[in-house]
Amino acid sequence: MNLIQTFSILTIIMTSVAIICLIMLHVLPTGYTPIRDAVSDYGVGSYRGWFWLQVVAGGLACLFLAIALSQLRPFTPTNVVIALLVTTVSRILLPFFATDQGGSRFQTIQGSIHMILAVFNFGGLVWAAKALWATLSHYPVWQDAESLLNILASVMLWCVIAVVVGLVIPWFKNFFGLFERLFLLSTYLWFFFISIELVRLG
């Protein structure tokens, strides 16, 4: 087993941990509504430990995938690796800055920092997903993956756009949580697909 396969397997494990934590947050009596409330809201309250673990596990998944992709030769997706590392840092820092609730997400310095980190988190993942095919297209063994990679990247992008709109347009705020969760779902599917293919192709 080479480094690409090793770190891809670690990515799969960490992504699975993040998903389990997210499921737990939706099963536990948190009092939040998945359709409306942000995932970051789980970071405030009695069950915040699950949120922290979910965020950190997701950050480690980004780190491990970045390491795996950095081993690709002769074409290395350097910009994707950088985007994933940026996302790693933003996710690891998120638990230290709880989100603001009850209106604006920019009520306090702490809440504002949380939102800035969220921008780097979401933006980094979309950047990585949209840019990856430019490198993988040079590898014949990846040609069959083009459609799914581009579809997932587009879903991620449109979900982020919907999340941003949900921050400013009152009607869309009622569905903010739904858009964010669809983004997370597409992101985790992207992580799984890339990692599984890296393990399979070596």
**Number of helices, where a helix is a run of at least 4 consecutive DSSP H or I residues:** 7
Mean pLDDT: 94
Overall shape: globular
The multimeric state of the shown protein is single chain
H and E string: HHHHHHH
Report the sheet-strand fraction: under 5%
Biggest sheet details: none
Secondary structure class reads mainly alpha
Percent in helix? over 70%
Radius of gyration: 17 Å
Question: How far do the termini sit from each other?
Answer: 8 Å
What does this structure look like?
- The chain has 202 residues and is mostly helical.
- The protein has one domain.
- The protein is built from seven helices and no strands.
- Helix 1 packs antiparallel against helix 7 and helix 5 runs antiparallel to helix 7.
- It is globular, with a radius of gyration of 17 Å.
- The mean pLDDT is 94.
In short:
With 202 residues, this protein is mainly α. Helices cover 72% and strands 0% of the residues. Keywords: Membrane, Transmembrane, Transmembrane helix.
Write the layout of secondary structure elements.
Layout: H1 3-27, H2 48-70, H3 78-93, H4 109-136, H5 146-168, H6 170-173, H7 176-201
Keywords summarizing the entry:
202 residues; globular; mainly alpha
